[in-house]
């Protein structure tokens, strides 16, 4: 069986024919920094070709799935916008890797899934979330366009009016609210999350592997067409917004609020 690769910011585990990829920066709520961006692309590519697995589970270490963008990394990208353009290309590879993997990909959203974290969860095939977890895409709260996939997947799941409401306000939903709206499959008490994910994994693993994979491929054809049409323009608009004074000011204000709260 193929050995699992080792990463700095991710943890890969195999149990039977189930491969689990965990974001592993619990001290920063699994926020995406430069290393995790690059490693996650590599991990998804490995997962897609791994002969030892038929189901993939994405989750987060600690108390969050992924808090999205790292504020310190945002400051670095403000100082060097060209680096943002390179990192945005990683976001594009993440989205298309999730769409291209033939195996079922299950999101086990054990805590906050915000920004890119929410996008990754919502591009998974099936989404289980802690009913009290928060999920949303607050790019606009830091003066950015939701260009790294949010503007693609939210309308497909909620329809345009609802998607615009949440993307333009940056409002976060509880897991229970997300399930009621049809954004995710199931919202569960935290203590039931593992059992339900395990149950579904076993159901998929006991099914017809080829039929399951090719059904996913067929369903994803339209979603991939939409992603191909919108991903580059979305990244381009986000690239413009990262260079604005409004973004710089929003990041500074958010860091100041976090610092003030830490002193309380």
Q: Describe it for me?
A:
There is one protein chain. With 264 residues, the protein is an alpha/beta fold. Helices cover 55% and strands 16% of the residues. The protein has 10 helices and 10 strands. The protein has helices at 34-49, 71-79, 81-100, 116-122, 150-158, 160-169, 175-181, 190-205, 209-241, 245-263, and strands at residues 10-15, 18-23, 55-60, 64-66, 105-109, 112-114, 126-130, 134-136, 173-174, 186-188. Strands 1-2-3-5-7-10 form a 6-stranded mixed β-sheet, sandwiched between helices. Helix 2 runs antiparallel to helix 10 and helix 5 crosses helix 6. The radius of gyration is 18 Å and the shape is globular. The mean pLDDT is 94.
The global form is: globular
| Strands in their spatial order, largest beta sheet | 1-2-3-5-7-10
- Overall strand count: 10
Average pLDDT, to the nearest integer?
Answer: 94
Report how far apart the termini are.
52 Å
- Compute the gyration radius: what is it? 18 Å
Helix content: 55-70%
Pick out the low-confidence regions. none
Number of helices: 10
Sequence of secondary-structure elements? EEHEEHHEEHEEHHEHEHHH
Largest sheet composition = 6 strands, mixed
Label the structural class.
alpha/beta
Fraction in beta strands: 15-25%
